[in-house]
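Retro notes, item 3 of 5
We never archived the inputs for the adenosine-5'-triphosphate complex last cycle. Fixing that now. Sequence and ligand:
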Amino acid sequence: MMPVIQACIGLGANLGDAADTLREAVEALDHREGITVREVSRFYRTPAWGREDQPDFINAVALLETSLTPRALLERLLAVETEFGRHRPDGERWGPRTLDLDLLLYGDAVIDEPGLRVPHPHLHERAFALVPLLDVLPEARIPGYGAARDAVSVLEMSNIRPL
Ligand SMILES: Nc1ncnc2c1ncn2[C@@H]1O[C@H](COP(=O)(O)OP(=O)(O)OP(=O)(O)O)[C@@H](O)[C@H]1O
Ligand SMILES: Nc1nc2c(c(=O)[nH]1)N=C(CO)CN2
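Structure as it came back at the time:
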């Protein structure tokens, strides 16, 4: 039996009815065996990060308890993305999508394997992930960086706002 681990998932969407998609994605995750959704952050409207020539995103974070391994959890996330008809034009990094699920934190694990990096390598520099993370886990720590609250304090935040 795997122990139960607390994990945080980042949800994002900027195509279609993004807020609806996020609500449905949380439901879909909660119905998977080995995953219990404990809390969901507020939803935020956030300007696109990385590639700015695309619509604003809606972002949120879900706090889960899971008995799945990190690899199995990531596979579930990718399956839910596919279920929601994620549209990812070939080879486009950081482009628009109907649903993006990122494994942000898995307990205090540090994992660096092909196709699986935890904590999520961009978490500490993305206000759109850190701000909702602090809603569900105000004391969150990012292994290798320290308090999530400290990471957020140096970022530009004026345009991250709850829906
Ligand atoms: N912690 C993680 N969470 C989600 N995907 C991860 C993680 N670590 C590695 N990956 C890999 O990254 C791939 C997802 O790439 P994707 O195209 O969604 O990147 P992106 O969403 O454009 O950029 P970013 O990962 O910076 O948000 C997945 O196939 C997965 O194997
Ligand atoms: N605001 C915002 N920007 C992004 C997001 C996201 O979820 N929110 N996801 C991306 C994919 O890596 C790239 N840029």
